[in-house]
Design goal:
mainly beta
Length: 128
């Protein structure tokens, strides 16, 4: 039996198609492509791609994220968030790197001190 390497596992993609609505939390170790609707939280160790028809209302935690659709909530990522020109984002961003194409709509708060959460939590404690 051939052994599957870890790099091959990270190339797998979980797809949520147009016309599908998920209410609840989604957790995965792989990449996720969302073209449907999510009302809840999404957590993955891989990349999240939210297509043009994709809508997420909740929190997204991942390594990298690319948005073409609509997000209303909070995204926390280890590396890069890319908001494509047709994207609409309302909420809070916590990331190390942010790319916003002309035409993208972003309303909210952005923290680029990283995704580890400790910096954000320490800041919130200091503000109290």
């Amino acid at each position: 039996m051939a052994k599957v390497s870890e790099s091959e596992n990270t190339n797998k993609i979980n797809m949520i198609g147009v016309g599908t609505t998920i209410e609840g939390n989604v957790s995965s170790n792989e990449n996720v492509r969302f073209d449907g609707n999510l009302i809840g939280n999404l957590s993955t160790k891989g990349k999240v791609f939210i297509g043009q028809s994709g809508k997420v209302n909740g929190e997204v935690r991942c390594k990298n994220c690319e948005v073409e659709g609509f997000v209303d909530g909070k995204v926390v990522m280890e590396e890069l968030l890319t908001l494509r020109s047709m994207s609409k984002f309302h909420g809070e961003i916590v990331t190390n790197k942010l790319s916003i194409e002309p035409g993208a709509i972003f309303t909210g708060k952005c923290d680029m001190s990283g995704s580890k959460g400790s910096n954000t939590e320490q800041t919130e404690k200091q503000e109290r």
